[in-house]
Amino acid sequence: MSEPTDPMGNFHDKIDLAEQMLPLLGQLHREKNVVTSIFGRLLENVTAIDIIKSHRFARRLLDEPLPLKETLPIVQALTAMDISTASIDIARLAQRYRGVDEPLERFLEQELADIIGVKPEQSSTDVVLYGFGRIGRLLARILIGREGRGLGVHLRAIVVRKKSADDIDKRASLLRRDSVHGPFNGTITIDYDNDIIWANGTPIQMIYSDDPASIDYTAYGINDAVVVDNTGRWRDEAGLRQHLQSTGVAKVVLTAPGKGNLKNVVYGINHDIIDDDDEIITAASCTTNAITPVLKVVNDRYGVQYGHVETVHSFTNDQNLIDNFHKGPRRGRGATLNMVLTETGAAKAVSKALPELEGKLTGNAIRVPTPDVSMAVLNLTLDKPCDAEEINTYLRNVSLQSDLRQQIGYIKSPEVVSTDFVGTTNAGIVDGLATITQGNHVVLYVWYDNEFGYSNQVIRIVEHIAGARPVVVPKRESIENL
């Protein structure tokens, strides 16, 4: 009997290469404010095992795992280069370098010409979280994890209503421990004298108030801040404009669909409608963010005549745990015991980001007894026929190579279930094995972490407003070229 061999090669050799890479990735982040990835999978706060898994993920594009011996020299070279803030996909650089007959350093100088020797403006934008619920705490985790060299966006304060004498202890504990997303990656301490939560060296001021219009943020050294309202209490311009009456506030972002003429933004689709003089922006809903990118690329390639969106959505804090009075229909029934049919405005909201789909979509929702991760079923009639393999190949390429890579993910596995998508950063992930086609009719199944994926979309809007989105290297493909 022959000796068994690991199809990925010697695992201990891979661990050695990954461990060599770890401190270099940290150095790039701390000293150059550079974020690295493997075909979009971020290499932030990772372990050696995470790095190996990311390289194995590359087989979706290369049809084989990406060897660490190809990427380690690139990371080593990057640390010695005079580069500025950027998001660098080292897998795509490795892929492009294959077959190139010139020194790696010269190749990288050509590929990274736009960010070599460029000195970024020494500016930063203060961020205040108004509310600290499910979305607020995930926004905090993301912002804390992106602290770099003092550039970009920085979490400065959290505003809540004080509910008990030990309020700050409970808030810190909820940030530290999460039943769905796991423990906070780092350390958290409390400065009781100054009402400050320290998270991985970042001081976060707790401000206790129930009036968004009367806070003097400048008293805490906060100026021209972006306030992210994640309470859901105010969704129209009059309500949200209260934040702008406080001293030290420049912009407001709402983590919900806005009412009236407020701009509803799905990052990656219509964030270019944000003007410098816009004071209030809304980030639409988690479902709208999940389905709009997929609907856009399908409509661009095949045309959508009409369709129906059915969301299978995890229960939310708005529902009752057990049967009790609720002002909304059906939501008073126990969330952990029932599937609850309810309405969703996500299908209609799509047209605010994609006017070409106005009046073409209907929608409904079923709340189910899971705490996180939802699914949208897109039942579409197209202008022209397609088969499952064709549309799946297109969506797979979009997810790996296009400028919508952060919004659209793709997976093709017969064993994945909802918990496998907890913590995913894409707005939505197409399940390729579930795709159904018949003539010009297609049914697509899109998973989405309605908490974490959506929170990442909100942060992308905040960074865009602050002018803090990093340069992407190499440049991604436009949808038209796929």
Automatic annotation (TrEMBL):
The keyword 4Fe-4S is assigned to this record: no
Keyword vocabulary terms for this entry: Oxidoreductase
Pfam families listed in its UniProt record: Gp_dh_C (PF02800), Gp_dh_N (PF00044)
Protein name as catalogued: Glyceraldehyde-3-phosphate dehydrogenase
GO molecular function: NAD binding; oxidoreductase activity, acting on the aldehyde or oxo group of donors, NAD or NADP as acceptor
All residue ranges annotated as the Glyceraldehyde 3-phosphate dehydrogenase NAD(P) binding domain in the record: 125-286
CDD domains reported in the protein's UniProt record: GAPDH_I_C, GAPDH_I_N
Family classification: Belongs to the glyceraldehyde-3-phosphate dehydrogenase family.
Record InterPro entries: GlycerAld/Erythrose_P_DH, GlycerAld_3-P_DH_AS, GlycerAld_3-P_DH_cat, GlycerAld_3-P_DH_NAD(P)-bd, NAD(P)-bd_dom_sf
Domain of life: Bacteria
